[in-house]
Write a structure and sequence with these properties.
CATH architecture of the largest domain: 3-Layer(aba) Sandwich
Number of helices: 11
Number of strands: 4
CATH class of the largest domain: Alpha Beta
Low-confidence stretches: 209-219, 221-251
Mean pLDDT: 83
Number of domains: 2
Shape: globular
Order of helices and strands: HHEHHEHHEHEHHHH
Strand content: 5-15%
Length: 258
């Protein structure tokens, strides 16, 4: 196993950081790695907002529902969908941008943001730093947009804490890799009734999600997915697609209060 694979397979989310700053040289290397990450059609519709100011990180922590690790880590990077800069480029070319009006546009950008996030994680961990992604920056999008000065056609999708590790964390459990890898076609024949359900009980105990009402039903919901017929599953997926299709064309404007 080479060093890159060793780092990736020993990933932990770190929630305790030393106050030591991350040097400009190290941060520049991490950002440069993400800058070279692939995007659909090389559109590069992703922007990073690097936040080091302590007061601003504290405000982001507050807007994210009390995520104090955001305030503790010396660097917080917001990964934003940025159809603002692509719109400027398309207009300069004499065309009209429409991708931001569709579910496909949001899906493409979300995938590319995930690729950038993964690249940032690997780069930071390869330099001995700890990280933890923060999805709850979407909790108060209007306030987050105002704080970061984001223009129209942008959206703060996810953030990443980066810093020197204070208290390390053990590896979290994973389901059997057979539930993750499927060759040629999806195969649930080996799932049984305990393989996944017991694991989700472990997750609830590990993260104490059972204290949160909306997460308390996860095992029940997951069991429903296992026992639901293929046709019913397809209906559920169709409903989810319809919901996203209804919301995504407007979410950029609504997030910016327009």
């Amino acid at each position: 196993m080479n060093e890159t694979l060793r780092i990736q397979q020993s990933h932990r989310s770190i929630r305790s950081y030393k106050p030591d700053p991350v040097s400009d040289a190290i941060l520049d290397q991490i950002i440069a790695a993400a800058h070279r990450a692939p995007t659909s059609m090389n559109a590069q519709e992703i922007s990073l907002i690097v936040v080091r100011d302590a007061e601003k990180r504290a405000r982001i922590a507050e807007l994210s529902g009390g995520q104090m690790r955001v305030a503790q880590a010396p660097v917080f990077i917001v990964i934003a969908i940025d159809f603002h800069k692509t719109d400027l480029g398309v207009r300069k070319a004499g065309q009209t941008q429409i991708i931001h009006e569709s579910m496909e546009g949001f899906g493409v950008a979300a995938v590319d943001a995930g690729i950038a996030l993964g690249t940032l994680i690997t780069a930071a961990e390869s330099l001995g730093l700890g990280i933890v992604p923060i999805g709850s920056i979407r909790r108060n999008p209007q306030d987050m947009i105002a704080l970061l000065g984001l223009p129209p056609l942008t959206f703060p999708l996810v953030g990443l804490c980066i810093g020197h590790i204070k208290d390390d964390m053990p590896l979290k459990p994973r389901m059997d890799i057979k539930t993750f890898r499927h060759d040629e076609r999806y195969d649930a024949s080996g799932y049984g009734t305990t393989c996944c359900l017991d694991f989700y009980t472990t997750i609830l105990e590990w993260a104490e999600w059972s204290l949160v009402p909306q997460f308390a039903r996860l095992p029940e919901l997951f069991k429903g997915c296992l026992t639901t017929s293929v046709h019913q599953q397809q209906i559920r997926i169709s409903v989810l697609v319809w919901i996203f299709d209804e919301l995504s064309p407007r979410h950029f404007d609504e997030a910016h209060g327009e």
